[in-house]
Structure formats: structure tokens, C-alpha cells
Amino acid sequence: MRIVIGSDHAGFPLKGAIAAHIRGLGHEVADAGSYDPAPVDFPDIAKEVTRAILTGTADRGIMVCGTGVGAAIAANKVKGIRAAVCHDVHSAHQSVEHDDVNVMCIGAQIVGAWLAVDLVTAFLNAEFSTEEQFRRRVAKLAEMER
User: Fold this and answer.
1) CA 143 to CA 117: how far, in whole Å?
2) Backbone CA torsion sign across 17, 23, 26, 27
């Protein structure tokens, strides 16, 4: 799978460990920034992450900021993106299985590297359910965007 990862300055220290883990799982990783701990605005990074998904150069995205909240808000402003803050393993996999989430947002000030690795593994291993009820609900979300 092709994964795009991005962070603001608060998420920058954790982003490297997450990217290394993703590569270790055998996935490709594209880095959408930031590239150093200097202050950066998370909406700018969200634009790059979401662009990669919408153009098909990435299958899923991961954003890391201080709490994950700002990243999720920014990513969800983009039509076709379903982003969720995931700070527990259940949400990380179920957000994909039930809601077809394509961007997982993690708060570096909330979770440490060990938990982040588990979250990423759950997110990447999950597949969108074929059950009609979940497909119907995601279709309704797409209709809301229109």
C-alpha cells in the first residue's frame, strides 16, 4: 500500500518513527512535510496529504499534529476525504472497516511512539466492510458532500 504521511511541528518528532514502522510493514511512504521542527500550519500539510490521496498517488494518509484534532478538521474540509482522530486501536481499525476512513490523525502530545505503532498497524490492516449497512452509510456521507 502507498501511504502519505504529514505532520506539523508538534507531530514532527513522532512522524519519523511512524514512517519507519510503515516501511517496516512493507508499505511505501511519501512524506508531505513538515521536514523539520520549525512552526508550520497544519492546514498546509493537510492539503498535501489529501492531494496525494485524491490524485491516487497514495492509498491512505496519516497526519500527526499535537492532538490530531486540527489535522482531522483540515483534512475533512476536502471533498472525498474521511479523516478521523484515532487514539485507540479499536477506533483505528473500525474507522476503516465501518466508515472507510482514508486519513488517520494522531496526536503526538496524546500518544507515544509505542501506541502510535499499534494504531498505524490496525489502520493499515483494516479493510472497508462489504456489509450493505456500512456501504450505505458511507454513500450517504458522499451525498452530503455534494
Assistant:
1) 34
2) positive
Q: Of 21, 65, 86, 93, which is the active-site residue?
A: 65
Beta bridge partners of 7: 64
At a CB cut-off of 8 Å and minimum separation 6, what does 13 contact?
37, 108
* Regions of the chain where pLDDT drops below 50: none
Contact in structure between 61 and 1 (CB atoms under 8 Å):
no
pLDDT (0 to 100) of residue 146 = 87
Residue type, 125: N
In the annotation, is 65 catalytic? yes
User: What's domain 2-145's superfamily in CATH?
Assistant: Sugar-phosphate isomerase, RpiB/LacA/LacB (3.40.1400.10)
User: What pTM does this model have?
Assistant: 0.95
